[in-house]
Structures are given as structure tokens and as C-alpha cells.
Write a structure and sequence with these properties.
The chain has 507 residues and is α/β, with parallel strands linked by helices. The protein has 8 helices and 32 strands. β13 and β14 form a beta hairpin. α2 runs parallel beside α7.
Length: 507
């Protein structure tokens, strides 16, 4: 390849791969947005170079101007939305040049920007939703509405009393009826003649033509004469909830994508529903990798406690997933391959093994089973070795989290939770921004995710976010007390700069 001519916007790039097939053989490379690039093995150094060049071209977002050089340009990371284009990454430092034990070099695309990686995860989730199901109210909590909720009746369905007191008709004083009066659930009195009053309880049906309710504490009763007097002026319609005050039959109450909370269950019941049409909760499986992990007791002899197994399940469950008990596979590539090819989950999370160390088996196994890599490394700190893959064309998704705890949280917030939100049918929330109280150091080229706590403003000081000290890739002390993670653009930010805040589910 000696140069790249600009391509028409509607055409996919067509690339001749030297050394592969006959002189007329071409590969048509789809855009990354619509079709992730599959993991492939190559048979020779020349083939590997050709494939790397082709993948680099396929991953470009916009057509490039022809290079003045006769040699192909080196792959570059995509420019961040918040900073200038990143410099070239030397091959020895690039994820695209790392080798994996026991196989050919793994040719990978340059790490995606944080914004692009997250957008691809959202898009992947939207492609993977399942048909809606109908569940009774007592089983719908935590699901997402697949259909809008429309009122099946007027609310309230008749005029009701908003207070305990007296229902009256016309101006006073009023003759009153004896007895307990009207209670909630009674069929009603019918018509109340002008100048009369009747006791009424909160929620009871109002008599026909009644004009107001006088609260018990505002009423004066003359038992001897059977007369009722008001201690305050009576305004027509006071303390009456008129029919359809809240909604009318057929009115849209909630839109699709609404999370079913306890309050939603109450509204649905009030509106006449016995069951709801919801999106099934995605099934998630967690595979904990690493022979060095302990499940109990103190770290010793080079072994460390597994922090991710206990943390990920509850976090994902709160995000709308049905999570199986974590499976601990150690550093066994055969066990990992078996787990990935037999899973019944919609999303598989692995912990560790995504880099290029001697026991990092995730990339080789994905290559063996023909998985499609959608995101292979993200320009974010901590957590840059994270990845997103499709295990089979119609099969489950996989998010590979780094093994360091805070780096894994970064992968969870960047890839797993956005994808899971799509699978669960949740509506993507508008980004929330807040100023940081102090300067936050940034990476020269990558986004940083930093744990922060929210602080309320007072006087001239606005609400703001305070960065926490313990933000290293292996640390959980900061995130354990945080309200969110601040998205710090390359180069860092000065005090008072607004940054996006990723809220934590428990904050």
C-alpha cells in the first residue's frame, strides 16, 4: 500500500492485502461503528503486517488525506473530544504490538478514546435487548417498562373527601344527619340536599351536589339543635379531590424505559394494573481469573484477597441484572475456554487476564473461539487494558475487566454498565457535570477517572466535587467513600472546572 485516497462517504474501504490470495482478491472492511473487527490469527509476518494495516484503516472514523510518504502512516489513537490528537504510540508500547503466549502476535487496534469506547458499549447494549415479558406487580420491581403505562381509569375515579370532617351543600349553617356518616368504601349517600351536612371520612365518596368539606377542627356542632356552623369562611370545592384530578383514562403516566421502583408499583396498582410489560433482566456471569486470589483470611505468601468477586455481583444486581454466583477459574485457559463457549448468560465479565503477561489468557482464547473485538483497550487511567467482545454472532457479550480493583471499577463504569443499561432497556441518562474544588492532575494523553465526593455549596460557593486521595489502580479506599467518579480530560483540570461525574448506584 503506497497511499490512501479519500473515499466517498457511502463506500466501505476496500483494501488489497498483499500475500493473501490471488492478485484480484480484495477485502471489504466494514465501518467499526456497524461491524466490530473480528480477532484473527495470521500465518506469516508479511500477512500480519498487511492485516495490521487493514485494521488500522478500518478503525478510522473519517477518511484521511493521502499521506505524502510512500509508506503507510502509523496507527494513531482517535482524538479526544477534550484535547488535541494523541501522538503515535511506539510499537513496543502499543497494545496492538503485544504478543500472547502460545500463539501468533495479537494485532490490535489502538486504544479507543474513553468517550468512543463508552458510546460503543451503549450501542452494543441496544442491539442485544430481548423480547418483552409480562410480569405480575410483585415480580416487576427492578425491571424496566417495555411499554408505556397508560391510566386504565380516572384517578380518582370519583369525587372524594380530602379530609375528615363534614360534607356540606350550599351556604351554612347546615342541618346535619346523625350516625357515623360516610366512610371510605361506602357506595355514597346519593344527593345531599341544599343546606344539609353529613360526616365524611378521608377518601370517602362525596355526595352528589355537595359543595365543600369542612374539616372537623373548623366545625362547631350544636347537638341540641342539630346544626353545624363553620368557624372559618367556606370556599366552594375546598378539601374535595375532584374526579380525574391526577389523570384521565388513557392518559400516559410513564414512558417506556422507566425503572420500576416501589413508587411505580404503587402508581400502576392505583391506575388499575395487575401486571406490567417489562424488559427481562439481563443474565450476567462473573469469571474470576488468577491463581493468586484468596476467598477468605489474610493475604499471605504472595496470595491476595479477591476484592472483585464480592463487589461486582451486588453492583451489577443494583444496575438491573440477574447475577450468578462468581465462578473462580484461576489461570486455567482450558477452563476459561469452556466457560466462554458454554455460557447461557447475556453478559460475561472476566476479572484480570486482559493484558499480555505469561498467564493473561483472555485475548488468545477470544482469538481461538472467533470472538469479535469491539473495544480492545481504552485510553483511560486506570483501566486501559479493558475490552469488549461479542463471543458469537448471536451470542453473549464479554467485558474483560483489568485485575486491579479500581481499574476494574473503571472498566465497569466505562463498558459494563453502559452495555448492561442497554440490555436492560434503561434510558441513557443525561451527563451530569459539577465543578471540582481543586486542581486534578491528568494523564498527558488519556482520560482519568478519579473518585470524588459531593459537597453542598453555601453563599457564593456552588455545589462542587472534591477529589479523593486514594485513587491508584489497586486501591479501593477512595471509591468506598466516593459519591461518583470524575471524568478528567487529558492534561488535567484547574480548580472550578466543570467535569462529568459518573454517579455510583448507591450514592
Amino acid at each position: 500500500m503506497t497511499g490512501r485516497e479519500p473515499l466517498p462517504a457511502a463506500e466501505a474501504p476496500t483494501v488489497r492485502l498483499s500475500g493473501m490470495g490471488g492478485p484480484g482478491d480484495f477485502f471489504v472492511l466494514p465501518e467499526l461503528d456497524d461491524c466490530p473487527v473480528p480477532v484473527r490469527k495470521t500465518s506469516s509476518a508479511e500477512d500480519e503486517r498487511a492485516v495490521e494495516q487493514a485494521l488500522a484503516l478500518a478503525n478510522r472514523v473519517a477518511p484521511q488525506e493521502p499521506s505524502p510518504s510512500s509508506q503507510p502512516e502509523p496507527s494513531r489513537r482517535e482524538p479526544s473530544a477534550q484535547g488535541p490528537p494523541e501522538p503515535s504510540v511506539p510499537a513496543k508500547d502499543s497494545a496492538a504490538a503485544e504478543s500472547v503466549r502460545g500463539g501468533a502476535p495479537a494485532h490490535r487496534s489502538p486504544a479507543a478514546t474513553w468517550e468512543r469506547a463508552r458510546a460503543l458499549a451503549v450501542r452494543a447494549g441496544r442491539r442485544g435487548t430481548h423480547p418483552a415479558i409480562r410480569l405480575p406487580l410483585d415480580r416487576s420491581l427492578g425491571h424496566v417498562l417495555a411499554e408505556g403505562l397508560a391510566a386504565l381509569t380516572d384517578l380518582p375515579s370519583f369525587d372524594t373527601s380530602a379530609m375528615d370532617g363534614w360534607a356540606v351543600t350550599g351556604p351554612g349553617p347546615w342541618h346535619f344527619h346523625g350516625g357515623s356518616g360516610l366512610l371510605a368504601g361506602d357506595g355514597g349517600l346519593g344527593r345531599l340536599p341544599d343546606g344539609e351536612a353529613v360526616r365524611i371520612a378521608t377518601g370517602a365518596r362525596m355526595p352528589v351536589e355537595a359543595t365543600a368539606v369542612i374539616r372537623s377542627e373548623h366545625a362547631e356542632v350544636d347537638e341540641a339543635k342539630g346544626m353545624l356552623h363553620a368557624r372559618r369562611a367556606v370556599v366552594p370545592g375546598q378539601d374535595i379531590r375532584p374526579r380525574a384530578q391526577e389523570c384521565r383514562t388513557g392518559e400516559q403516566l410513564l414512558s417506556p424505559g422507566t425503572l420500576v421502583t416501589p413508587a411505580v408499583l404503587g402508581l400502576a396498582a392505583a391506575a388499575g394494573y395487575d401486571a406490567l410489560v417489562v424488559v427481562p433482566r439481563p443474565r450476567v456471569e462473573i469469571l474470576v481469573l488468577g491463581d493468586e486470589l484468596l476467598t477468605s483470611g489474610l493475604p499471605h505468601g504472595g496470595f491476595i484477597r479477591d476484592a472483585l468477586g464480592p463487589m461486582l455481583g451486588p453492583w451489577l444486581n443494583a444496575a438491573g441484572a440477574d447475577v450468578a454466583e462468581p465462578r473462580r477459574l484461576g489461570d486455567d485457559p482450558a477452563a476459561l475456554r469452556q466457560a466462554l463457549t458454554t455460557t447461557a448468560a447475556d453478559l460475561v465479565l472476566t476479572t484480570g487476564g486482559t493484558a499480555a503477561g505469561p498467564v493473561d489468557h483472555v485475548h488468545p482464547i477470544l482469538a481461538e473461539i472467533g470472538a469479535e473485538l469491539v473495544v480492545d483497550g481504552v485510553a483511560v487511567r486506570p483501566g486501559h487494558p479493558m475490552l469488549l467482545a461479542r463471543l458469537a454472532p448471536d451470542g453473549p457479550w464479554l467485558v474483560g475487566l483489568p485485575g486491579n480493583p479500581l481499574a476494574a471499577v473503571s472498566g465497569l463504569l466505562t463498558l459494563a454498565l453502559p452495555l448492561l443499561g442497554g440490555l436492560a432497556g434503561r434510558v441513557e441518562q443525561e451527563p451530569y457535570r459539577a465543578p471540582v474544588q481543586e486542581e486534578v492532575q491528568g494523564h498527558p494523553h488519556d482520560t482519568r477517572l478519579v473518585p470524588v465526593v459531593h459537597r453542598a455549596g453555601h453563599g457564593a460557593i456552588r455545589d462542587h466535587a472534591v477529589p479523593l486521595r486514594y485513587n491508584g489502580p489497586a486501591m479501593l479506599r477512595g471509591i468506598a467513600t466516593a459519591d461518583g467518579m470524575a471524568v478528567v480530560p487529558p492534561g488535567g483540570v484547574r480548580p472550578g472546572t466543570e467535569v462529568e461525574i459518573l454517579d455510583l448506584s448507591w450514592a
